[in-house]
Amino acid sequence: LYLGIAAQGRSMKVLLLRTGLALLSASQTLYQREGGKVATNPADPYMTLLSYFNSLRELGGSRRIVEDEVKSRLELYWKRRRLDPEDKLFSTRFIRHTPLELTSRVETDEVAAAKQKLATDFTSEDRVDVALATNMISVGLDIVRLGLMLVFGQPKTSSEYIQATSRVGRQKDKPGLIVTLLNIHRPRDRSHYERFNVYHRT
Question: Would strands 100-102 and 148-152 be described as parallel, antiparallel, or unpaired?
């Protein structure tokens, strides 16, 4: 399932913060409803947010937001709810580990260790809440468990977009959710936002 998000007058970093908070907190709610820390929890694929960036510059600028603001705000995010009717979409979530990074600046042995952690279900102490990646994951990242991806800006080519987003949702009974953040102030991103359904059907 693909979803495109853009907001007039808002920066991409604000979009990243608000979308990341909503996805991480809502997945926690779903995880708890399905039994919590059990090996067969069907919500497990959505507990790790794999974030894709088109460049190291974009990733570096967003890392602080994830490490500081997302981490601290998640603990109180459960307060954001509709009162009438009450929905209880969000839950408190504590992120203990720093975001995992899969980029060209990470050593080869560290990449192998990172892939092992991503494949581990959420009952493990080595679980991963957030992973930050560039196009190095477009090939070679074959982890069946992953089901949730955030794409920061439309990749330059359709082939790159297809390769990157196909890293999640590989289980037939657990479809992937890919959320693309688009900069409405960039003509190319605006065009993709306005033609989002047609582009994805094509």
Answer: unpaired
Residue tagged 């959320």 (tokens): 179
Q: Say what the pTM is.
A: 0.91
Dist CA 3 CA 194 (whole Å): 12
| Rounded Cα gap, residues 118 and 148, in angstroms | 12
Q: What letter would DSSP give residue 176?
A: -
Digits of tens for pLDDT over the chain (202 positions)?
Answer: 999 999 998 999 999 999 999 999 999 999 999 998 888 899 999 999 999 999 999 999 899 999 999 999 998 888 777 777 777 889 889 998 889 999 888 888 888 888 899 999 999 888 999 999 998 888 778 889 999 999 999 999 999 999 999 999 988 888 999 999 999 999 999 999 999 999 999 9
Amino acid present at 29? T
